[in-house]
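QUALITY CONTROL LOG
STEP: pairwise intake check
CHECKER ROLE: data steward
CRITERIA: each record must contain a sequence immediately followed by its structure tokens, with no blank fields

ENTRY 1 OF 2
RESULT FIELD BELOW
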Amino acid sequence: MNLHVLNGCSPAPLANYLKALGILRLVSEQADAQARGWWDGERFCLLSNLSREELQTFFLEKYEPTPLLSPWNAGSGFYRTWDAKKKKLRNSKNAAALETLLETGGARVRAFRLAVEEVRSILPRYCKRIDVSALGKQRGHFLIIPDGEGPEFPAISKDESGKSQVQQVLVRFSRSTPFYRSALVDTDGKIRYPWIWGSGGNDGNIDYTGRFIENLGLVLNPRDRVANRALLRNAVFGYHSTGYLTKSAGKVGQFLPSGAGGANTTTGTGSQDDTHLNPWDYIFSLEGAVLFSSRATRSLDPDAMSRASAPFAVHAHAAGFASTGSEDAQRGEQWMPLWNQPATLDDLAAMLGEARVQLDRQPANRPVDMARAISRLGVARGIEAFVRYGYLERNGQSTLAVPLGRIQVRHHPRAYLIDDLAKWMDQLQRRSRDKSPPASLVQAERRLADAVFAALTHDHTPDRWQAILLAAADIESLQAGGTAVEAGPIPPLQPDWMSAVADGSAEFRLAMDLGSAAATYFLNKPSDPVRHHALPLKPGARSFQRDDKRLVNDPRVVVSGRDPLRDLAAIVERRLVEAAQRGQRRFRLVAARGCGAFFDDITRFLSGAVDLDRLFRLARAFMAIRWDQWSPDHLPQNTPSNEMPEECWLAIRLCCLPWPLAGDLDIPADERVVRLLISGDAARAIEIARQRLLSVGIRPPMYAGTTDSETACRWAAALAFPIDRSAARRAAAILDPSLKGLTHAS
């Protein structure tokens, strides 16, 4: 066995990737059935009983090309075009190339001859006869068939004056043929195309099979055999080659973007025709693309309609790469597998035939779904990575296969968390693709998809998972203004999200405290969660309150989204007002078990040492956590420091409790304290709090106090973070040392 390192075959561009598969396929089918191939970094390795010289001789002298034909396309070589101005038929370039190939290819194109004969026998069945004299200004592509005879394709004869003497019957190709444009019919009844073959075997005016036939003619009967060998060595082994068989051997289309030609594609001036293409590159690329044929797959529902499925092909979505181009023009994406173990052609064909990328029992059909499936090992074993290609519009309206990155196949233990957001993201994506969607929604949906993609395709870090929730919170802020409300708010999230995003910061702990806040917890189930102050929600806080297509105007919603400090203070004020309306003198806001705020974190908040924007956005996302399933075991234990807020704020905090401090020691809440702080009158607020404490026997050490208006507002906002009973008793003991016994009370 001989090991061949094919330096001319790399994972990118797509032409070089397909070239590697084409070489493996041709060698296995025509020379060595036991040949094996695999990827080693940026090159393809081939193990075969052929020596290097024998491998080259095989392609130069024995290789029999696959009969790739697209008889539904005008440039396939089977038709002539009616020139309405000159009123005559013109032979197409590809028609001449096809005839030349069949005449000069010898035994190496015998399969081609049989295929062409079969096509020519079938085509007339799907053509409409047309009277030559009635053509006039009609345009179209025509077959020429002698009237009353078999399907022959004679040349057009001319009389002595040079005018065409069309004695045959012209027939126009009909689009009713069942193989028209190699269309695939999907479950919604719409015509789909395998993206790797463009729009049915062509890309714009480039007919793949026509170019294939043209390049075959150059290498099977070359004018310069020395140059032909050099080009083969360049295509396969990456050797330098100074010459080409022709100046332009035909544009490669979407497979090789750098070979598209045209102005500004290289140094100096040039035209669109200044393309130099190695014909072997094109031939091997198409020979490899054959492996990516579509298959009919069926869902688990036995009554469901079969749908067309191309290997590892998904719908396009601008996630995980920098430049998106024209979103509406994207044909889709295809993820090309890389494997690092020797595989035979049968192994490769089986893998592509199954193309198993599953999410539970559903196939992945979006890039984010692919990332989810890959991170959960939902792909065929043996795949090391995928090269992600997007079929995007670039260079005008040309479609190019653009590499969008390489995705490693790795097990990600937290990938299942994205299941919580999957359906919500689907709905948001549909809304962002509606006719004239708000630009803010398009950008926000893109940020969310990018964040999910990054978390699933990189090593686990809390900041990546926090980025997902921050992006989700931004979308919910847009929804509060009436955008994409049909999708609903952030869906319920598993408590495991908290361990995924935990970074040990004060922002995280305070956001968790606020996000879990509710009026009460009974048997670990929250009642009247704080989320009702951020969005107009139905009871249970899982869906919007809507009137027709708009959100209702709910007076409980006091979060504006413009100023986190004002929003936090407004939540505190609203809770106190609602309690007063019920005749209660309580600040009804408690945290989930184990989530109460630490005083050292509140001290940082009061001093302005926290990222307020990140804190509040995280808290909005944490409001969607299933707190009824919460357990402190979801997070590692934290040891708070002894840092404490100043005594004036502690006095105000004790005047805003949801329960008695201990036994008969019950401090009634007073909504005036918060209103005064919001207005900037800290001195009056401190005095009221001091009097409240004195009325129940607590003797604070200060006789008066004040602060500036900005700090006063921050003091009011800090009340939105619930503390637990032990923290409240600790604060009381600091204000009045005679109450130290409270810290040991149960």
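ENTRY 2 OF 2
RESULT FIELD BELOW
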Amino acid sequence: MSSPATPPTPAPGTALPLAASLPSPTALRAELEDLVVRELLGPAGGADEEVDESRVSDRYLVGILAPRRTIVRAAESDSLASDGAGTVEDGNADDLALPMDSLAPAAIGLTFTVRGDGTTLAVTPRWGRYAREHSATATTPTGNPKMVWKRYPMGGTPLMVALSEGDIAAMPADAEQPDVVLRGRVRKLEGDWVVSLFLVNAQPTATRRPRDDELVFQPELEVAAADGSAAFRKRLRRSNSAEDEQRRLEMLYRRHVEFAVGHGVAVDAQPAPGDPTSAVRLLTRVTPTYEVPVTTPPTVDDNPALGAVVLDMQRLTEMPEAELLQSLRALTDSYVEWIASNQARVDAGADGLADFAGPAREAMDACRQARQRISAGIELLASDPKAMRAFRFANQAMWQQRIHALFSERKRAGIASTLDELDVPANRSWRPFQLAFVLLNLPGVTGLDDPDRSESADAVADLLWFPTGGGKTEAYLGLTAYTLAMRRLQGVVGGRLGHAGVAVIMRYTLRLLTLQQFQRAAALICACEVIRRADATTWGAEPFRVGLWVGMRTTPNSIEDAHESILRAHGAGGGRGTGSPLQLTNCPWCGNEIKSGQ
């Protein structure tokens, strides 16, 4: 792992600016990425490293090729992969998920397209071989050379592969390990070459667990044209009308050229200078990375009609009803203009859409349906006073949640600030898609008989598909606040009490996200509770509550367990309870530290 550059030493009496003493976020991320790859894939100690452990395969967890047909016994699998599965705290395991024997990977490969006039490829395999031998530097307590695993870089010499139809016979990639070979196949398709190449650990199959000197570590294939030209083209696909989803994806990512598909591995491509539709080199990646661009909401410059849309949560809470409805209808008007402009692109076949007439037409139809649902949500607000009241409640709760969450975050970081400083439109405004998402879901959330919540095949479940930071959480928290308010206003619906029971369930598949998301949800519930206490006549005497359950190893499964955990935290009694009810270390509303017993 490389170290950040040493900052310059300031002159006596001169304070070095903080920004100059710290690496940039990009540099930190690159360093962290390099560290993770070295730790998981290796070689952490460099190309000629020595591994002072009993097994290299226990040191590195990815990028290992075993001899062909090597069976991985379920009993020898990593216990962490199934730890807790099927126990009471994590739910019952699916019968199909029981541990089973499997074949260890013996090869990595890639398939790609080469121009039809290409004749020869230069393929460079690389990998690491580890041998058990005496260390050149490490010694035992008695002073004797220590037995370690010594790494030897293998491959590195280009193998010339002629482009002619048929199988590529096994080619040894390094004389010191001749059973590691390059194999493949070449086909002619629509005038171009379609090539599949594989680096195979073809050593004889072991009936036992293979030794580390029989394994291939850090495998890699680099492919280039023998003459260095930009010979690689966009990978050919064969789609038919039945593959609707595939065609839609091809339309969406038509500007992202896929040069190769990996087999058991990912592939990076080096585009030709000035020509992103061709590539000069392909390189497999056991640990791939991808730069996800930031998702930014449209502005008035992008769509002037948005200028009439009020996105400030405070204004949406307080503005007169007629102005509120006018603003919301302006949102649908801007969407109509956006649909019209994109329909014109589709009709003209612009921007490469001529090849995707069907998927493009379906996409525009889906946009029109969404516009109709948004309009239905707005008309619900116009006709149902309870819906309007709940909508204003949601905006007020989200407004307070946003500024208090920021205040709490700054307080935890030791940054002095006040709520008045943070209570500005930039901190309490919706993104257009968030407000639209809330509106289009209002009828389904409000009415038990709405088609969107029926058992019909035409019922709708909306999916927000944005990368991290795109605003998904705020969108569904806004809908959550509306749901909580509407249940209180409707009272008994379908024989069920609106003020009691569970209104919203949020499930996170990644536990690393759970506490961060719970902090934001808790801030919203705090906001809802402050509003309720100020007007209990409208919102009822029952408090708004939020809970967290992530399995008994982290949180208690019962009140009794929680009590025992608290006793343990105070050092009183046995405290046999599992998990801890103290999941938040700071108050999501005021930012003060939460300590056991307070």
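INTAKE CHECK: passed for both entries
DESCRIPTIVE NOTE, ENTRY 2: Confidence is low (pLDDT under 50) at residues 1-16, 78-96.
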